[in-house]
Amino acid sequence: MIAENSLDNTLQVRNLHKRFSGQQGEVVALSDINLSIRTGEFVSIIGGSGCGKSTLLRIIAGLERDFEGEALLDQERISGPGPDRGVVFQEHRLFPWLTVRDNVAFGVAPDAPAEIQRSVQEHITLVGLSGFEKSYPHQLSGGMAQRASIARALVNRPKVLLLDEPFGALDALTKIAMQQEILRIWEAEQTTMIMVTHDIDEAVFLGDRVVVMSNRPGTIKKIIPIDLPRPRDRGSFDFTRKRNEVYQEFFASAEKGPEYAI
What pTM does this model have? Predict the structure, then answer.
C-alpha cells in the first residue's frame, strides 16, 4: 500500500459540483467533492445507486464537461478525454467485427512509436489472452472479453485507469478471478486505478482506500484507509473488521429514508 505522503498526487478533484436538468427540475448529482489520489494508488469508490459515483468517474474521464469546480491530472485541468486516462465499463464494449488484437490496437495510431505498437501484444499477454489474438468477441467468455477491454484501456500506458463496475455483469466465480487479475495487472503496470463498485467485499479487497459516498446530493461521506497487507485474506479477522467498517458507513444513510437507493 502507498504511504500517505510518499508520492505526489496524480489526480485532484476540487470543490466539484454537478447538476442535471430533468422533467422535475434541477437535480444536484454531486456536491462539494474533494479528493486527491496518489500516483500508483488503487482507490475504490462505493455508494448506492444514484449517488453520482459513475458521474464522478465520467468527469475524471473527461466525458462530462458541464460542472463546477475542477479535476486536475498532474496539475493540468481535465477538459476532455485523453490517452492519459483509460476507461473500462461494465460491458466490455468490444467491436464485434474486430479480433482481439484489432480491438486492443484500436486506439493506437498507425504512426505511434514502435514501443506502443509492441505494447499491443505485451498487453494481450499481460491479461492472459495469448493464443486468442485472432478470436472475435462472440468467441470469448465474459471474463475473457473484459480482459480484452482492460488490455485496450492500458495499451497506451495511461496514467490513470478508470473502472466503472467492470465485473458487475460476471458470475461470482469469474468475478473473483477477475479481481485477482486486476490486482496482478495493477502490480505489474503500477498504474493509478480508480474503481466504482457496489460490492463492499470487492472495494475492501482491491482498494488502498475506500471512498464511501452518500446520496442526493452525492457527497463523500468518509474515506476509509485499508491498511491490510497484500495478498488479502477475505476470511481473516482484520479483513472482516474493515469490511464491517465500510458496511456500517455504507448503510448508515439508509436511516435517512427511502430515497437512499441501494
Answer: 0.89
